[in-house]
């Protein structure tokens, strides 16, 4: 009788928990950031057919790639170990150092992207919404980065709380904007479909646009920085009670539901923008190097005649929403970059008392990070090109290629070796990585 009660209790406790819902929303909120504001531009740049194909690929990319990374994190013998510990366990200290380097070079270019984005967004907001004469780019970038550096240096705990608070208002704003754009939908995207527009090859062909679109999907649908913490939490909660198999299945369910939410919100936002903007407007937004919300704000600002209440509200609020999203993403990625660079300095440049030099190392890292971000912000390279050539390829190395390599080399992951989805994940990782070489050939 006791055994039956024990089994019944275990089944009851193994049901979906509140913590599972919390983590589903946490993964979802982590992925929804500033990258989403560029996704409609890249996805819509090739027209309707490529974005429809991207829509079909979005969930498999989001779910399968993150599940592969989660399985790697689950393969460690220590249930409290993070991804660095797991890599060192499987590949030794040299492997841990390599991952640390990859992690740093995966996040630092994202800060450069956000530095360019926040400078352009602030300048276009001042020029179009506040009607202020164009300011010197170097001064604006320096002012914004110094303001963020001061906030980071003196109020880190408050900053983290603010970031967490802003996640869901930002998501709500995206959904409301997507719904509110419906009255402005038009058929121009359908009018552009012709034999010339649907060619498979060439610079503007369907295949090239899908290939480049995969990079922005990897960038926009990315919650890999939090996967290690997520898996560690779930292992501590479930593994001792229900075993590794149940823990892996539960993590897969959470990742699946987070991916569904993420794809639904981002793709609805992308389609709503696509049906509102003509192909020429999307190309112009890419050329201006600004977010889709900033472009829409400028578009409604230039409308003559009677404006609707929505167009007036969007004109005033879109750039502010974009600024909030970029600030949120910048702060979150800055902390990861700082920790990674501090670790590299301590590992290679200093062998003494680590606690004694913590503040000094923080200042050195901050100076390098903010200085390099200011230089890139002043140069003002195209943001989508930066994402496609630097941000997304390195993310894919960690998110796609590293787990696939581990499956072939690590005995604990050998049970996943012959899974058909491995080919899909590997292809996504390789195609995204090849964008780096494509951009070099394209520009030079």
From TrEMBL:
As recorded in UniProt, coiled-coil segments are none
Q: Which domain of life is it from?
A: Bacteria
Instruction: Note the Gene3D superfamilies from the entry.
Output: Amino acid/polyamine transporter I
- Example GO BP: amino acid transmembrane transport
Give the main location: membrane
Subcellular location as annotated: Cell inner membrane
Q: Which UniProt keywords apply?
A: Cell inner membrane, Cell membrane, Membrane, Transmembrane, Transmembrane helix, Transport
Annotated InterPro entries = Amino_acid_transport_2 (IPR018227)
The UniProt entry's GO CC annotations, sorted and at most eight, read: plasma membrane
Q: Which residues cross the membrane?
A: 21-41, 47-70, 91-115, 135-155, 162-185, 205-227, 254-277, 309-336, 357-377, 383-402, 423-441
Membrane topology per record: Multi-pass membrane protein
User: What is the name of the protein in this document?
Assistant: Threonine/serine transporter TdcC
Species lineage, top-down?
Answer: Bacteria, Pseudomonadati, Pseudomonadota, Gammaproteobacteria, Enterobacterales
């Amino acid at each position: 009788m006791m055994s039956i009660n024990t089994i019944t209790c275990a089944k009851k406790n193994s049901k979906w928990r509140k913590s599972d819902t919390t983590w589903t929303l946490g993964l979802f909120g982590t992925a929804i950031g500033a990258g989403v504001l560029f996704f409609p531009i890249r996805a819509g740049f090739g027209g309707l057919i490529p974005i429809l194909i991207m829509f079909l690929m979005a969930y498999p990319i989001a779910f399968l790639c993150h599940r592969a990374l989660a399985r790697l994190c689950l393969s460690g013998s220590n249930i409290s170990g993070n991804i660095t510990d797991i890599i060192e366990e499987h590949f030794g200290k040299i492997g841990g150092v390599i991952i640390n380097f990859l992690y740093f070079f995966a996040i630092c270019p994202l800060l450069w992207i956000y530095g360019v984005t926040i400078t352009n967004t602030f300048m276009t907001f001042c020029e179009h919404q506040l009607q202020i004469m164009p300011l010197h780019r170097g001064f604006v970038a320096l002012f914004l980065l110094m303001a963020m550096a001061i906030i980071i240096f003196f109020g880190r705990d408050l900053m983290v709380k603010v970031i967490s608070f802003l996640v869901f208002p930002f998501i709500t704003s995206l959904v409301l904007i997507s719904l509110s754009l419906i009255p402005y939908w038009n058929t121009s995207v359908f009018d552009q479909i012709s034999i010339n527009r649907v060619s498979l090859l060439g610079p503007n062909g369907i295949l090239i646009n899908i290939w480049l679109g995969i990079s922005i999907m990897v960038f926009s649908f990315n919650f890999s920085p939090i996967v290690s913490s997520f898996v560690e939490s779930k292992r501590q909660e479930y593994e001792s009670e229900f075993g590794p198999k149940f823990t892996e299945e539960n993590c897969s369910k959470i990742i699946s539901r987070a991916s569904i939410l993420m794809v639904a919100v981002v793709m609805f936002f992308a389609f709503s923008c696509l049906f509102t903007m003509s192909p020429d407007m999307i190309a112009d937004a890419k050329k201006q190097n600004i977010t889709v919300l900033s472009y829409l704000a400028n578009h409604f600002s230039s409308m003559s005649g009677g404006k609707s209440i929505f167009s007036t509200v969007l004109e005033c609020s879109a750039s502010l929403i974009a600024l909030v999203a970029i600030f949120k993403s910048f702060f979150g990625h800055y902390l990861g970059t700082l920790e990674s660079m501090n670790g590299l300095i301590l590992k290679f440049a200093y062998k003494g008392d680590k606690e004694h030099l913590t503040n000094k190392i923080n200042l050195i890292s901050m100076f390098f990070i903010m200085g390099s971000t200011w230089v890139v912000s002043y140069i003002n390279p195209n943001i989508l090109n930066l994402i496609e050539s630097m941000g997304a390829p390195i993310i894919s190395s960690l998110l796609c290629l590293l787990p696939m390599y581990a499956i072939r080399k690590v005995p604990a992951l050998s049970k996943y070796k012959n899974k058909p989805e491995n080919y899909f994940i590997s292809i996504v990782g390789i195609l995204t990585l090849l964008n780096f070489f494509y951009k070099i050939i394209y520009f030079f």
